[in-house]
What we know:
Layout: E1 31-36, H1 39-49, E2 58-63, H2 65-72, E3 81-85, H3 89-100, E4 108-113, H4 118-126, E5 131-134, H5 139-148, E6 160-166, H6 173-186, E7 192-196, H7 204-207, H8 216-220, H9 228-234, E8 236-237, E9 242-245, H10 263-272, E10 275-280, H11 286-294, E11 297-302, H12 306-322, E12 330-336, H13 346-353, E13 360-362, H14 365-374, H15 378-381, H16 386-399, H17 413-421
Parallel strand pairs: 1-2, 1-3, 3-4, 4-5, 6-10, 6-11, 7-9, 7-10, 11-12, 12-13
Antiparallel strand pairs: 8-9
Helix pairs in contact: 1-5, 2-3, 6-16
Amino acid sequence: MINYARQPQEEQSEASLPPIEEHIAPAPRVSVQAFCETVETAAAVQSAGEDRRLGKAHLKIQMGGMAAAVEAYRSAPTPNVIVLESDGRSDILGGLDHLATVCDAGTRVVVIGRINDVTLYRELVRRGVSDYVLAPVGPIDVVRSICNLFSAPEAKAVGRIIAVVGAKGGVGASTISHNVAWAIARDLAMDAVVADLDLAFGTAGLDYNQDPPQGIADAVFSPDRVDTAFIDRLLSKCTDHLSLLAAPATLDRVYDFGTDAFDAVFDTLRSTMPCIVLDVPHQWSGWTKRALIGADDILIVAAPDLANLRNTKNLFDLLKAARPNDRPPLYCLNQVGVPKRPEIAAAEFAKAIESQPVVSIPFEPQIFGSAANNGQMIAEISANHKSIEMFLQIAQRLTGRSETKKQKSSLLSPLIEKLRGK
């Protein structure tokens, strides 16, 4: 009846946010039916159905528990996933035996119960249950259980999408996103791709000194062709660990997109790349809102003035409300300390947003201007510049990873390298 089983949760978390190290990949287009015994569990499942990671799933909730499920499937086909709540040991095992007689092959079953017992879990595994979750459950517990049914248990946290957007035009969000992606690839040794979503005026190709003949526009305007091989042909290699999905940056056509125009591209990138950095343009449309809400982590780049404060607050509040089971967005201040410009202090900014900025990057037009004009990253211009550490700090916060350990050099290092070469 069921494809595979996973280990039970030893401790049931409250309805809290997942740790930054945990990555829950979105579920595919599947049908999910839940049969609950209590209104609390039904409410948690309902909230889970509104989570972005179950956005493609079709969820239906009914009361009545195991008995209602057995009765329902006597005359109806079973969905891809059945979520069952049950109170007692005999009810669970006996109900599953009855359910097996009416359940279609390939259906996966998640049981929510109140008995924390290894013997019971073994009996559930023997009957083909995919997951056993201890009640009471929160929305994130339901999301985790359903989504993990469709991801390989041995797979690492691949496909993390990071969206970077400016609170206002001209605040340097693209520059920040490109340098943060560089830090993710170089310092954290993660394979990453930068997707430049500003098709008309994107600067990722200029910043990385790349001029590929194809890019993201070819994928967006040919959604039927999008697959892993097609996306691989569109990627431009920047470094060993960093690739670019460049924008055409031409005005020979109008780039009006539907809300789900980028879905196929993002889904394909998730399946092949551990980290995807979206350079989201400063505009408000259906697809930009969808890209931000659908991202695993979000960075808002703002300058220290009133308009940026208002826009950051609006973005912050909307994204927190739309992603209740995710970590709140992060934000950083950029271009801090412009001569003779009145600014809002970082402390005042944090008080209004009710969150501290990750970093405050000072205004240094000389080095940032040189890097932009030369098609280089700040780390390539000046290896010891203080902003490099800030980019790494942002990268660590967004990915949940610490800096890759580097082997300390010694006086014998040159000799050891020569011996290794031989």
